[in-house]
Design brief:
single chain; about 130 residues; mainly alpha; 5 helices; binds zinc ion
Amino acid sequence: MNKNPWLYQTGQNWKMGLFNFLIFISLCLFGILVWRINYREALTSIIPSQGTLSLAFVSIGALAITWLWFSIRCPKCKISIGSYLMTKSDALSFFNDLSKLHRCPNCGFDGLKEKGDEKGTDSDGSAQNHTSAP
Ligand SMILES: [Zn+2]
């Protein structure tokens, strides 16, 4: 998967990473659940019951969605990006929209540092090497 530029700029890429991790755990539990159903008599003392596995995989998946919903926020206008995108677009295009996010959909904040940051003056920086000799 590609790195989200806006999430990266606003320092929230780890939240997406944690979401992916939780989804991964959930899918692993789902895989164990399927395996558990297919091999009922195997290792019943080690592998949790089907009910436990189902509950765990559903709740961790729901936890991941909830986490993504509430954790990713615009640092400027403080809106929840997850709920904003969910209400503006349908669930299928949600992750597509989130992955293509380049600025806050509400206030347009692009995550870049505002003026005062030494960046972007590369067009006329050829002979400006601190010529402040008195
Ligand atoms: Zn915003």
